[in-house]
Design a protein that fits this description.
Shape: elongated
Radius of gyration: 23 Å
Subcellular location: Mitochondrion membrane
Mean pLDDT: 75
Keywords: CF(0), Hydrogen ion transport, Ion transport, Membrane, Mitochondrion, Transmembrane, Transmembrane helix, Transport
Number of domains: 1
Structural class: mainly alpha
Distance between the termini: 64 Å
Helix content: over 70%
GO cellular component, one term: mitochondrial membrane
GO molecular function: proton transmembrane transporter activity
Largest sheet: none
Membrane topology: Single-pass membrane protein
Length: 53
C-alpha cells in the first residue's frame, strides 16, 4: 500500500522488531534443560562413537 505515510511504515517496523525481539528473548530464557537428560545424551553419543567393525 504505497499510500501509507512513511512514518506509519517506520512505526510498524519498530513495533514488529520489538515484538520479535521480546518473543525471542522470552523463548530463550524460558528454556531450562534437565541435567539428567544431558548426561544420558552424552552417554549415548559417547557409546555411539565406538565403531565395531
Amino acid at each position: 500500500m504505497p499510500q501509507m505515510a512513511p512514518i506509519n511504515w517506520l512505526s510498524l517496523f519498530i513495533m514488529f522488531s520489538i515484538t520479535l525481539l521480546l518473543f525471542n528473548v522470552m523463548n530463550y530464557y524460558s528454556y531450562s534443560p534437565k541435567h539428567s537428560s544431558i548426561k544420558e545424551i552424552n552417554k549415548i553419543s559417547s557409546s555411539s562413537m565406538i565403531w565395531k567393525w
